[in-house]
Amino acid sequence: MKKASWIHWAVAIILVGLAGYSAVYIHRAEEKNALKVERQAKLDKQEEKRKKELLREQKKHMRTPIAWDQPSETLPYPDVSQAVKSKKLEQKIWLLVSPNKQRVYVRQGPYTLYTMYASIGKNFENVKNYQETPTGDFKLQKERGEEFYDATKGYGAKYWTSFRGYGAYRFESVPFDQAGKVIESQAKMLGQKVTKKHNVKAYGSIRLSVADAKWIMDNLPAKTKVVVEDNDPKHDAWEYMKD
Fold it and tell me: Which PANTHER family did the record assign (predicted)?
């Protein structure tokens, strides 16, 4: 056999061997990937089941009738003292605000730990940004306090915590008048559907029961994530946070 022919045969054998090895390697990689996908699908299913179980449990313990001076649930508030210090995304405490449902959800990673009744006004006027709660991704700020009164708006509130504008947009209690008496016509809107006739005049802030507002002020530090959904949320905000 000529030397050139021998070299050609050797190269051909090597190439065939490499092709076979590549096919085996690709097959094994595909098998591993399929197993990963299967495991992730199983974990996602378990996570979704756990999320639904938690929400069902909370729904059973939502306070009815709604009381503006009491916690939204009859269950104790969650202990988040250690979780708020965590740097792991799956363990972080954050707030999901739903204007459509008039609820605030205290979440740890993808799980809802506590559900709060809320009052969130809508902009029914032809004035830009009037009576409008901003939507998007925010953080609690260090500005907070036990009470305030705004003479220009004719109401005040207790236990406020800023999430935008250094006090301009806040989590706060239901409103009180200058004499310190609750404004019942607005307080009874807590957790209720908002319409043009029965709107919540909160000027962009998010109202809660007195107890819930105090819990947020006392337990959630500055930089706690806040996600306010728009009027037509397309997906769970947890997926958005992982991006």
Answer: L,D-TRANSPEPTIDASE (PTHR30582), L,D-TRANSPEPTIDASE YCIB-RELATED (PTHR30582:SF2)
Show Cβ contacts of residue 68 under 8 Å, excluding neighbours closer than 6 positions.
173, 174, 182, 187, 188, 190, 209, 210
Backbone angles phi, psi at 169, to 5 degrees: -120, 130
Sequence ranges of the domains in the chain: 1-59, 61-242
The domain at 61-242 falls in which architecture?
Answer: Beta Barrel (2.40)
pTM of the entire predicted model: 0.80
Can you tell me whether residue 217 is helix, strand or coil? helix
User: Residue 212, CB half-sphere, CA atoms under 13 Å: how many?
Assistant: 32
**222: DSSP letter:** T
Strand ordering across the sheet containing 111-117: 111-117, 103-108, 93-98, 225-228, 136-139
Tokens representing residue 138 in the block: 């925010």
- Residue 52: in which H helix or E strand, if any? helix 3-60
**In 3D, which of 127, 124, 100, 131 has the Cα closest to residue 196?**
124
Task: With cut-offs at 50, 70 and 90, classify the pLDDT of residue 229.
Answer: very high
Q: What is the tens place of the pLDDT at every residue in 145-191?
A: 999 999 999 999 999 999 999 999 999 999 999 999 999 999 999 99
